[in-house]
């Protein structure tokens, strides 16, 4: 399957000027971000782009003050020292330096899974029922209201950090204890039993395009941190749906991405209910992984783009 993307808008690498590849940072996803950043840096340099690695926000501030970069390829993951919560986007806006990915609003909103769900629900977009948990809330009562099984996770982390699947009341306290190690509120979400899928989104000019969907089939029970970044046993089926279902999930991904105020590129994650076949939105990633195990590069290959072309196209969104 291929996606009918227009050709790249630029052919001369000099048009990008000096590019800072922002990676690493001090967030919980530092290791993944460094791995992603190394891949992006190699791809840009292979295309003749003048790119340098910048590790974390203080190093970016130094580069901006010294005018060492003309634009930023942001592959910094997560929040609080990461690059997906809107803070670093505000910094780059203040210096009037263009960057890849979503701006302040889309980044901040998408980092908060609870408020993203509130926006989607207000627009009638499908997402699993949830409870917002503050410190001291009765998690057992919340689970009874939603109905077990449930997912418990930090509302502002990525890469499956702090996430637990809970199938009985006895497992709730340990799940909450794990999720509470991370900043922010907790999200309890009805567990949709079925297939996990994801759709990459890429802007070309003013238009958004959905890349082929991917169905994720981990060897274990679910797609946890190990299955995402460490295991070679996870199976990726691309496209993950077929016919009308593939068109449906692509269109839903674009609607969800735009509704969250996102731009440039990203990834929208779904569950597909095994019984009904219905798609349910989980979250938007505004700086998805770009490692050897990552999903957007896999979908791009299915659409006929290698890593170098994908990174070039993402960088074009910062022109």
TrEMBL record:
The active site is at residues 29, 159, 294. The keyword Manganese applies. Its EC number is 6.3.2.4. GO terms for biological process: cell wall organization; peptidoglycan biosynthetic process; regulation of cell shape. GO terms for cellular component: cytosol. Keywords: ATP-binding, Cell shape, Cell wall biogenesis/degradation, Cytoplasm, Ligase, Magnesium, Manganese, Metal-binding, Nucleotide-binding, Peptidoglycan synthesis. It is found in: Cytoplasm. Binds 2 magnesium or manganese ions per subunit. Mg(2+) 2 binds at residues 283, 285. It is an enzyme of class 6 (ligase). Its cofactor is Mg(2+); Mn(2+). InterPro entries: ATP-grasp, ATP_grasp_subdomain_1, D-Ala_lig_Van_CS, D_ala_D_ala, Dala_Dala_lig_C, PreATP-grasp_dom_sf. One of its GO terms (molecular function) is ATP binding. Mg(2+) 1 binds at residues 269, 283. Its main location: cytoplasm. Pathway: Cell wall biogenesis; peptidoglycan biosynthesis. Residues 117-316 form the ATP-grasp domain. Cell wall formation. PANTHER family: D-ALANINE--D-ALANINE LIGASE, D-ALANINE--D-ALANINE LIGASE B. Belongs to the D-alanine--D-alanine ligase family. NCBIfam families: D_ala_D_alaTIGR, PRK01372.1. This is D-alanine--D-alanine ligase. It comes from Luteimonas salinisoli. The gene is ddl.
